[in-house]
User: Which sequence fits this backbone?
């Protein structure tokens, strides 16, 4: 079944504003600007005490916003994005990894962009989507009118345009690759400002998920790295900080333009991170760790991918003057990414479809200072990063006071924010209560774990498509998920889970690199297996950059696997396969 049809929202001509006065719905809808940076942790802002970072615009936004001080996301990026876009736990919507097909947002999930689009908003995304690139998972199929994105989880990862390196790259502009001039973060904000100008009087939902400061291929304009020449830190840290300062400059540019267009008063602006910092010595060569053992993470334990607070507690600033959401006020109650969608729908008076349920709740009472009778909450996070989820793997069960970690450690976060003192033996009743809540949560979200989230081929919406090694579903290890890995030509292999949308004649072209790279194969034999429908081998012509197979396929789900075998017997999967229904 293809993407479900979500019934159009029926909006009344009037709505009740936050102040309680009836207003014309079409004239009272605020704009939304949602900015999410990549791998920038809570501590990676000068206003949070970082000893080196230069972030004057983030600091300014910190001082003028309501700050969610106990705001939590998933420990890695695709799961956070899935929860942010749906208001539902990432495991519930099929996303618990960043690769291997486990980053694909199930097609029957409703995104916040879809609801805003149906409510008459113009919707745009510029930057990193990372919830699937082809139909029906790509951003342009999930509610965005205007989508300029790189593919996968970072510029230069395997599905991205071959050779992208942060500068003067090709990005996917609403389905077509085209070249852009400049540094990636500058491009995202250039496109965002274009989108705002072109929106005119139409309310807009603007999502800017930056690729920086992700470190797949860490690059930044030299003038930003040079700002940290005098810092006693490794080169990797200077590049990382330079990327953040570049984001800060672009944030300042956005704020200045919005102010000049008189948009700030009537725009909900959210600035947040996607997981904990990657600037941790454990990622550096041994000499760099020895030379610079110190780091700043606001006293928290852990970093990106950790289920301790340093891996998932991030900054979240919300600014919306018209509703009184301003003034540099802090909110200390526990909140999470799952709350963003219901909060935005509430602030914008967009009704929720009757058949849609959220795991999150609207934060409007907290944001407006009317938190009387705010409920006690338990929030669940885990870091799976495996093909099939495992109960209690890298898990944190969280309340305002407690953290139950892996059902073996208990921390009083108010007394021990660094999570250094395991007190589970002193409070067994607390651990037992949180364990029971987790058991109920796991039973709910695990009901669909066995369902496939296949890659579609042969659809009317997108034909041809490209399969790539990023999405191999491997039981052990990881597939070659970025282009530097592909350049090493690892002797790896794995299958794709595929859904044949329409029966017919299909052409498969097996390659080591995309057609644009014009890379000659060294293999002497190529093999293609498609479930039980075909298993064929053929010789590879000398100098060929790809090997073609044609086959008649029935509609339905199957698996696809390839082999490219060199004369010496070395075999690897085809890292790229073009598939077209003829």
Assistant:
């Amino acid at each position: 079944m293809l993407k479900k049809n979500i019934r159009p929202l029926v909006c009344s001509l009037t709505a009740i504003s936050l102040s309680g006065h009836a207003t014309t719905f079409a004239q009272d809808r605020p704009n939304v600007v949602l900015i999410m940076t990549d791998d920038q942790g809570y501590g990676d802002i000068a206003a949070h005490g970082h000893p080196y970072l230069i972030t004057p615009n983030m600091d300014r936004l910190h001082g003028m916003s309501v700050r969610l001080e106990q705001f939590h996301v998933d420990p890695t990026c695709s799961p956070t994005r899935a929860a942010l876009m749906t208001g539902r736990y990432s495991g519930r919507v099929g996303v618990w990894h960043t690769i291997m097909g486990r980053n694909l947002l199930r097609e029957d999930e409703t995104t916040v962009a879809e609801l805003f689009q149906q409510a008459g908003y113009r919707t745009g995304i510029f930057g990193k989507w990372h919830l699937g690139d082809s139909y029906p998972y790509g951003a342009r199929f999930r509610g965005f009118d205007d989508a300029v994105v790189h593919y996968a989880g970072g510029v230069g990862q395997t599905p991205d345009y071959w050779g992208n390196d942060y500068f003067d790259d090709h990005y996917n502009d609403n389905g077509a690759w085209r070249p852009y001039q400049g540094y990636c973060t500058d491009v995202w904000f250039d496109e965002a400002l274009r989108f705002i100008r072109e929106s005119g009087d139409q309310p807009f939902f603007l999502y800017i998920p930056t690729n920086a400061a992700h470190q797949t291929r860490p690059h930044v304009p030299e003038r930003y790295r040079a700002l940290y020449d005098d810092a006693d830190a490794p080169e990797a840290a200077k590049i990382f900080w330079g990327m953040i300062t570049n984001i800060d400059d672009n944030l300042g540019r956005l704020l200045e333009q919005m102010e000049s267009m008189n948009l700030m008063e009537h725009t909900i602006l959210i600035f947040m991170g996607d997981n904990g910092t990657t600037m941790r010595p454990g990622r550096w060569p041994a000499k760099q760790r020895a030379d610079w053992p110190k780091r700043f993470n606001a006293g928290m334990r852990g970093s990106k991918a950790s289920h301790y607070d340093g891996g998932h507690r991030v900054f979240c600033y919300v600014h919306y003057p018209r509703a009184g959401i301003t003034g540099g006020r802090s909110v200390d109650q526990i909140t999470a990414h799952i709350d963003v969608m219901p909060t935005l729908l509430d602030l914008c008076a967009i009704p929720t479809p009757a058949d849609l349920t959220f795991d999150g709740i609207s934060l409007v009472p907290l944001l407006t200072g009317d938190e009387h009778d705010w409920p006690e909450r338990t929030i669940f996070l885990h870091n799976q990063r495996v093909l099939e989820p495992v109960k209690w793997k890298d898990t944190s069960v969280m309340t305002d006071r407690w953290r139950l970690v892996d059902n073996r450690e208990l921390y009083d976060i108010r007394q021990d924010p660094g999570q250094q003192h395991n007190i589970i033996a002193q409070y067994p009743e607390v651990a037992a209560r949180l364990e029971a809540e987790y058991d109920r949560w796991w039973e709910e979200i695990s009901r669909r774990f066995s369902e496939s989230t296949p890659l579609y081929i042969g659809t009317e919406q997108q034909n041809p498509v490209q399969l790539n090694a990023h999405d191999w579903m491997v039981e052990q290890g990881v597939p070659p998920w970025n282009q530097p890995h592909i350049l090493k030509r690892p002797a790896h292999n794995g299958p794709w889970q595929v859904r044949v949308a329409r029966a017919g004649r299909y052409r498969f072209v097996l390659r080591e690199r995309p057609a644009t790279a014009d890379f000659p194969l060294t293999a002497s034999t190529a093999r293609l297996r498609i479930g039980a429908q075909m298993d064929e081998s053929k010789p590879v012509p000398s100098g060929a950059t790809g090997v073609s197979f044609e086959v008649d396929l029935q509609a339905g789900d199957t698996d696809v696997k390839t082999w490219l075998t060199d004369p010496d017997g070395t075999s690897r999967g085809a890292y790229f396969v073009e598939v077209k229904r003829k």
About this structure: Residues 1-27 have pLDDT under 50 and may be disordered. The radius of gyration is 24 Å. The chain has three domains: 29-367, 379-448, 455-581.
